[in-house]
């Protein structure tokens, strides 16, 4: 955390950062903790009382994960990149871990099952019945029940345009119920939650300078997609609960979609990771402005 007096005198970020790194070996990566604090506070305000699961893949530092969790009481657990990462983070003392993507790698599933058997909360992602048996076998070998989360497709199909990614084959209540029924058939598995990540809203800039027409079109698509996602996500959650399935959480959104996702009554928690460092992907959103809080420094050694 650079000296505040120096920063006030210079008013120059380059001078601030180059001075802070003086004497350190380059290349070097750094984070600006003052800006991290401001970004955490902005996430809290934007979440408007809703808990936020912190996405580890956008942070990539155990120290920064601990810092964020200790400075943001609204953070609830981690959203992890892979089963192996979740198991390793559990060994580091983290808990309430949800893996964001499906995996059938036996060695990684075994690591997760061992951590679950030891009392850790790790929930694995699924979107197809073919993924269930490898997880069930890992749970059986560890003598435990592995929690699962159904990943629903949150893209919107407009006439002649798919707005979003092809993330999951589970797009309707009927498909979610069929997958939940398959989970219920396996004694070493249980349904724990639902995730619907609307990447087309959370990860698409809509206020880029010099692109007024494109910005207008994207904001229009986003508004219509937010209504569609809330309707379909709500229908899936309601169908699962009506069928007797108990959902510990319903996760939605990302750094760029707090304002719409938090209004979906079926969602119990948001997700964010990039909102800490704020890479260039989040430079131009109409709903919020955040400050880049991480960077890297290189030595200049020649003039080409």
Summarize the structure.
42% of the residues lie in helices and 18% in strands.
Explain how this protein is built.
The protein has 304 residues and is α/β, with parallel strands linked by helices. It contains twelve helices and twelve strands. It has helices at residues 4-10, 13-20, 33-47, 62-71, 83-91, 106-117, 132-142, 173-184, 199-202, 212-242, 258-261, 274-277; strands at 28-31, 52-55, 75-80, 97-99, 122-126, 146-151, 156-158, 161-163, 189-196, 249-252, 269-272, 294-297. The strands form three sheets. The protein has an eight-stranded parallel β-barrel, surrounded by seven helices. The chain has a two-stranded antiparallel sheet with strand order 1-12. Strand 7 and strand 8 (161-163) form a beta hairpin. Helix 5 packs parallel to helix 6, helix 6 (106-117) packs across helix 7 and helix 8 (173-184) crosses helix 10 (212-242). The radius of gyration is 21 Å and the shape is globular.
């Amino acid at each position: 955390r650079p000296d505040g007096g120096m920063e006030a005198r210079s008013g120059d970020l380059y001078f601030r950062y180059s001075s802070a790194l003086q004497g350190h070996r380059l290349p070097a990566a750094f984070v600006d903790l003052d800006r991290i604090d401001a970004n955490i506070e902005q996430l809290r305000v934007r979440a408007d009382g809703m808990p936020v699961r912190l996405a580890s893949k956008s942070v990539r530092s155990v120290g920064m994960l601990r810092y964020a969790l200790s400075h943001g009481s609204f953070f609830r657990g981690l959203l992890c990149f892979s089963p192996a990462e979740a198991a390793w983070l559990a060994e580091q003392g983290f808990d309430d871990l949800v893996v964001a993507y499906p995996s059938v790698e036996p060695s990684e599933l075994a690591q997760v099952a061992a951590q679950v058997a030891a009392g850790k909360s790790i929930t694995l992602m699924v979107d197809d019945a073919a993924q269930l048996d490898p997880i069930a076998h890992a749970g059986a070998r560890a003598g435990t029940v592995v929690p699962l989360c159904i990943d629903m497709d949150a893209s919107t199909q407009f006439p002649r345009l798919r707005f979003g990614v092809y993330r999951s084959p589970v797009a309707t209540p009927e498909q979610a119920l069929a997958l939940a029924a398959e989970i219920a058939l396996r004694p070493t598995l249980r349904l724990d939650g639902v995730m619907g990540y609307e990447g087309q809203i959370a990860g698409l800039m809509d206020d880029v300078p010099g692109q007024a027409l494109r910005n207008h079109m994207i904001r229009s698509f986003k508004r219509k997609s937010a209504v569609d996602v809330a309707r379909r996500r709500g229908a899936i959650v309601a169908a699962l609960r009506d069928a007797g399935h108990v959902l510990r959480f319903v996760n939605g959104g990302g750094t760029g979609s707090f304002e719409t996702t938090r209004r979906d009554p079926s969602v119990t928690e948001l997700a964010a990771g990039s909102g800490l460092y704020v890479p260039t992907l989040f430079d131009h959103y109409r709903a919020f402005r955040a400050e880049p809080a991480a960077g890297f420094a290189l030595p200049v050694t020649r003039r080409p």
